[in-house]
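BUG-249 | component: ligand-complex export | severity: low

The export step for zinc ion jobs runs without errors, but we want the raw record kept on the ticket for reference. Input record follows.
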Amino acid sequence: MIIDLHAHLGEDVVFDEEQTEEELITAYQENHVGGAIVQPYLPRIYMEDHRQIHDRIHRLCQESKEVKFWGMASINPHFRPEDYDEEAQRCIQELGFVGIKITPIGHAAHPSSKDCMHVWEVCRHLKVPLMIHTGAGIPFSDPISVQKALESFPDVPCVLAHAGSEMHNQQATYLAAKYDNVYLEPSWVGVIGVMNMVKRVGCSKIMFSSDNVYQIPVELAKYRSVIKNEDDLERVLYKNTAELYQLKM
Ligand SMILES: [Zn+2]
């Protein structure tokens, strides 16, 4: 079994990217990946557009027979708190989504700012992990930007998406070694960075993810090259994600 923790659906107006249901399903089947947690590509900054992409992800989760999908909500933290709460609650409690995402570079939001602290509160209340994009988009996306919030929310599991990427993975590794609730999703990190994570943090806090369909075989090859122990590899390829997000398999 393999589960991808970080996949996107829809049209992204920040990064000018697009990915369809068919592209996801075909790529996962080709690479023998059984499931994925899917979040929106960044929509326009209207709540209606956020609702539409969340509904589209929900339909994919319900209708896909070939690959198992779970949803992750991504809502701009600068919406009015009451509007943010309503959509977050709808996603988690009605649509059955399993997590929430902040993208500092796309949402123009520092992960420890007042508006993002509200997102941490929502994750605590709804009992779901918070994924935060790190890497591209310094200084907001420097993993160390998350530290202030971590001090206030030791009970909210936090996944550092891209684990700081190639330039800032030292900071992400430092945080995951220091804080029990920090996990690493090292898509786009090179093999040396991943090796350092395995040594310092261990395989129980590292999760495979692709971020993009063309990246799936590349990311899989990376872990198979670095991790030789079969149990550790299983943890990274699906078990850690299934446990943290309490996925119904
Ligand atoms: Zn992404």
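Assignee comment: Attached the raw record above. The pocket of zinc ion is lined by residues 6, 8, 211 (CB under 6 Å).
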